[in-house]
Structures
1.
Amino acid sequence: MINVFSPKITIHDFLSVNKALLKSEISGTSPIIENFESKFAKYNSKTYGVAVSNGSVALDLAFQALNLSENDEVILPSFTIISCLSAVLRSGAKPVFCEVDESSWNMTLETVRGLVTDSTKAILVVHTYGLPSEINKIKKFALQKKIKIIEDSSEAHGLRNEGTLCGQLGDISTFSFYANKHVTTGEGGMLLTDSKSDYLKIKQMRNLDFKKDERFKHENLFWNYRMSGLQAALGISQLANLEKNIQKKIHQGNKYLELLNDYQEYLQLPLKKLGDDKNHFWVFGIVLKQKNIRDALIQKLLREGIETRPFFYPLHLQPVLNKKFKPNYDLGITENLGNNGLYLPLGNHVTGAVQKKVINKLLANIKLLTS
């Protein structure tokens, strides 16, 4: 089976985790946690970092820190993972879904601007599949409107928009370190901010409202969202290899583009660049031009030993979403991506020969399904 992804664990990762074991730095309050937070914040040019148990938790804490109410609105792309919607709904705010660009598959200033009202309190900017959203433009617009930016860079470690690292411009930025990310701790996440007050509030929410004085007297029913010391040790080691991992993904993505260049009558390819911003190919996605064959194609490839994965299902169509939040405007690009997009195996386990095999099987099955 050619899996859609496989984490890259090096001897340095192994040694880093074993060093933490030998030093008994295994708990969520070990000094190595602050070491990882400091290194990751410094890499992303942010002042404070708070490591947490996963990226979904990071989003939850980011929105809880804003103290939103049911009359407040949060603009977010409909083409993204359910964690984004869940975090907005759990904050008590109203989600307002924006369209994405047909080529980059990301939200833009233009898709956001027309949705802003007097009730808009935050914009959730998500960087998707290896290309950045227009965070620089959206941030400037948000500053004028006094709207907060939550920047979800879970899929964008080391990615840049107009020279700025993704995760650098959010009032609060969030990251995931799930196994398929460019930096992984297995599970895990991080929040970054330049606000000391937000930093202290998030640290308190992460840790059951424990205080230095009167530790076991609690004014809030916060959760335990801590990351373990072993995860932080792995994260520190992984961070050192980030640039190398990115270059590997770019090489593989460009190889897929080369192999598929002559077959664009069948599918839409991802952009190699967006302006001067290189695609980091967190995943290599394609959109089928023949409608309604995607699921059959995924099953055929799976039977031939090739795992693929469908694109995100549109948030505005999720069965769990209350009807009162359903938009009354068209989100056709998002729906097309959700119905006809999929991504291919990518990562350290995928060689050039494997890529050729994947493409040959892909094209053969597309032709079979469209004949």
2.
Amino acid sequence: MAKRFVSIWFPHLVTDWYTLKQPELTNKAFVISAPSHGRIVITSSNAIARNEGIYNGMALADARAIFPSLHGAEEKPGTADKLLLKIAEWCIRFSPFVSIDPPDGIINDASDCTHLWGNKKYYKTTITQRLKKNGYNIQIAIADTIGAAWAVARFGNGTFIIKRGQHTNALLALPPQALRLDADTIDKLEKLGLRHVKDFIHMPRSALRRRFGLQLIEKLNQAFGTEEETIRPVQPVELYEERLPCLEPIATATGIEIALQRLLETLCCRLEREQKGLRKAVFKCFCIDGRIEIIEIGTNHASHNASHIFKLFETKISAIRPELGIELFALIAPKVEDVQPLQQKIWEKTGGLDNIRLAELLDRIAGKAGENCIHRYLPDEHYWPERSIKRASTLNEKLTTEWIVDKPRPLQLLPVPEKIAVTAPIPDYPPMNFRYKGKLHTIAKADGPERIEQEWWLQQGQHRDYYYVEDEEGNRYWLFRSGHYADKSYQWFIHGFFP
């Protein structure tokens, strides 16, 4: 796929930002200044000041001599970088691959993006109008290479959308500054009368290298596309992402649902073709006022079932606040896994924990009740009951030891046994009654004891003698005596409840 890049130039970035904060500066000559080598110099100026002959690098005193009513402010270090980063993050609505281009630009990789806005012209117009509406003066160019887009945005005249394969012709008439060269190289070129790229582009590269250094060769190759140039996005680009721009802002729940369904169909078809499924999905809504509304869901199994995933999102759509409207929707799958078809067993109708219907049911419950409300437990290799289970990390985690099924165990097990007062005959008879939380329970039936020893590798506590008891009301409990009856140091505890 042929690359297309967008260069956005902010000729008055910092002064535009100050003007947004202080509207009274709108129609006044305004500059930003900072100390440099013992004097105060101008680092940024607005369009009105530029028209009065005031330029960056000029001493502030000289500027005030030219234009006495000049307004100024001290530069705050890092302001330009912070502004570029904030604007670049906002520009992600136009391209997932956005990078800052200090000190006054942004680069978008618009490959396979412009058609989402109809065509390149409308894409460029939309970005221009939105940024100008936000108060920034900008110049935008679209070309096949980063270098060509950068050059045309700053030095172009007339045509700012360069057709595919025409970036070479667009560069020829531009000055050497358009190649992003250092000041010394530019000065050498101008002294030799090489004031346009066409004046030296056909010279032997070896001669250019000897006279002007490797930088000129590198910048020429990057601008003309013979050497690849990379940029670093402000946010990592997700491999599985689908986008849907809107011709008109969407502000209704129905419109949001339709957009989500279309994105899910596209993304799930792609995942199915690649035999993959998502474990996590993020739905982003880019609002006109600059906000980004985000909802996300997770699944227990990798899934590309669009209808199931939509049901998980459906309960959260009400949390989206479109306000003035949403101009772009994006669906991202940051966590994707391979989907392996399950081997069906000829004599079994269900798939146990591998049953996809069970996984989808748990997904829907988690979406309504919360992910932390559903847990699966596995047997652990410990003797004492409260240590004999552990929480599974996944729904289909395999057993490392078998469940105890030959002896009864309570459905509800207290995490920490609670002390009780017990009346019991001697030496190992079941208790006759016990008092728990102020209520006396008279035992009608009992079975036991089942001795569970302490774990020799831990050596903590005494052995336990467990009894299964039922009171006169038919409620069943799991009690135990800790320690030998003859030691007079024994204690009774309640540990669980049977259904």
